[in-house]
Each structure stands twice: as structure tokens, then as C-alpha cells.
Amino acid sequence: MNDSTQPGSTTGLIQRAKDILLKPAQTWPTIASEPASPGELITKYAVPLAALGPLAMFLRGQLFGYGAFGFSYRPGITAGISTLIVSYVLGIIGVIVLALIADFLAPKFGGAANRTNAFKLVVFSSFAAWLAGIFQLIPGLGLLGLAGLYTLYLFYTGAAPLMKVPQEKTAAYTAVTIVCAIVLYLVVGSVTASVVGLFGLGSGPTIAASDSSGVLTLPGVGTIDGSKIDAATKQMQAAAEGHVKPIDGTKLQTLFPANLGGYTRTALETNAMGQMGTEADATYTQGEKTIHLKVIDSSGLGALAGIGSAFGAQHSREDADGYERASTVDGQMQIEKWNNKNHNGEFTQQVGGRFMITAEGDAESIDELKAAIAAIDKGKLAELAK
User: Fold this and answer.
1) Location of each CATH 3.40.1000.70 domain in the chain
2) Do the Cβ atoms of 281 and 300 come closer than 8 Å?
3) For residue range 251-273, what is the model confidence (pLDDT) as tens digits?
4) CB under 8 Å to 22, separation ≥6 — which residues?
5) Is 24 exposed, middle or buried (0-12, 13-18, 19+ CB in 10 A)?
6) CATH homologous superfamily for 249-384?
7) Taking the model in full, what pTM does it have?
């Protein structure tokens, strides 16, 4: 084979992208048999492709600016470059962390731990998301970035040939790995110091077994309780195997009150996501102000709270414009955001390890959004789940 078609060369990179996107089932066995190392996979594939999204966002900011909730701005060149660099570096770190998680979880689903194959699985399944990042360049085309969700399918199809996970467990393995990654990304900055070791093919983060469940140890973060991940795993696997049925959207609609204080309900909407869950959304208005109240039945995938508890995950950021907070309260995830200038925010609370209730929009204070969450009858919600 000519060097120009070798994986890692420009021609080889393009061909590999076509193969993994268009015929993943045939391509994964080939990838599994190729010699590689985590460091090579990162430098040959992740380093060039992970830059596409941040570069597109940088150019969009300089050419078109950004806008949301009636507010628009165009970042300065220095701020834009800084954001580009940080997003790019954290993107690379995210790939490394996700690979470590995939390697750690594989044996729990009947697969085999294999650090190199875990990196292959994450790097090549990320091709869809990286390429979709280009669509962020032009306002209005950002939604096309949802094509990056194809990454989840690629991960799913690669779990069996690379990590030896039995086919009947690949859906649950994919779900648990991705949800673990979402929570761990809240503290991804803490593993920055480990990146140098991984790029240099050093030891990096390690996996140690202290009991039958195992403990994942990440330098700068600490240990992750394997027993809690086991419990979350069983919940997600039950959902993937169809033992937990999502609630019908019309039943969720009955939870929304006609009024929220001075706000009047003006619209109802439901969206079904198959076995993944159901979403019901109510719109409330008061003059020019709007609040969206959502109830999401995430079925067994709501084990996010258990995984968050295993990580002890929390995040906090505050400045003159507002704040963001994420934490685990009584074993349930809770997210709070507020913008002081626009009097706009979001409050999300998990209920029963299964449901997510979110209130977002315009309000006098975050307390109005919390009151909207409180207006949902939690007892009735629990009855619907039976």
C-alpha cells in the first residue's frame, strides 16, 4: 500500500472517515486488527480532527457573532482565540477520559478491558461528531451538528468487535459509558495534568481494583465508587432490554398546572424518543416573559444520578453576569443557571433517579423557576412510573 493511503496520512484519513461513517460494521474489525497505541491514535486522528469544531466556532464568532435570548455579541480576537484553544484542549482531554471510562466499564458488561482498543473505539467513533463540528460555522446550520449524534451509533457498533462486549449488552454499555462521560466532564479540568503522561505514552490515569466492583482512580480527581456504578449499570441495562417502559407523553402532560403564579399555560407539547424516554413540555407566558417547564422520563437511563453520586460530581462558576452550579443532592443531580442581566435562567432537578424536571426562561429570580419545579406533583409522577 502506498504511504499516501496509510491510516494517518491525509488520503488515508479521508478514506478512513468514509469507511467508518458509511460502513462501520465492515470497518471495525479492520480497525481492531491494526497495530496502534493510544498516543498514536491521539496524534494522528484526534489532534487534527478535534480542531474542526473549535475553529468553526472561532470563525463564526469573528464573522457573524453570537446571539441568544435577545442578546448578541461579537467576541474580540483575543477572547476568541482563548476560547478556541481551551475548547480544543478540553476536547482532546475528553477523548482520553472517555477512552479510560470505556476500558474500565467493558468487563462489567461481559467484555474485555483493553486500553488500546478503548482508544480506538472512542477516537474512530468520534469522527462523526468532529466532522459535524464544521456546521457550527454558519448561523442557522448549527442544528446540523446533531449529525454528530451518529457518534453514539458508531460507538454502539464498535463495542462488540473492539471491547468484546456481547451484542445483547452493547446498548447498555454505550449508554452507561456516555452518561459517565457527561458527568465526568464536569470535572475534566482536573485531569489536565495527566494529559502529558498519556501523550508521552506514560502511565496516565490508572485503574485499580480494591473490591469486586473495582475503583477507577484518576490523578487530581480521586476514586470513583465502582459499587454505585454497578447499581447504575443494572438500571440502564434494564432500560436497554425493555424492562422499563417510558411513560406515555399524554400522561406526563397531566402534571402541568394551568398557571404558575402570574404565568398562564399557553401550549403543550410531547416528544417520544422510543425506549430512550419521553419528554413533555409546557409553555407559560406573562406579558413578554416566557417559561418552559419540561418533564423528561429518561427511563432507566436516569441512572445518571447514581453515576454522579459515584463521582461526587459538582461544578460551580460565578461572575458579575450570573452563575452556574451543578451538584448531587440526596443522590439526585441538580443544575442551576442564572443570568443577572437578562433575568433569564434554568433550574433542573432529577427525581427518583429517573425523571428530569426543568424550568427555563424569563423570571424575576431563580426562585420563580424553582417554584415552577415545585408545582409538579412528585407523588403523581411516581404513581405514573408504576
Assistant:
1) 249-384
2) no
3) 999 999 999 988 999 999 887 75
4) none
5) buried
6) PknH-like extracellular domain (3.40.1000.70)
7) 0.50
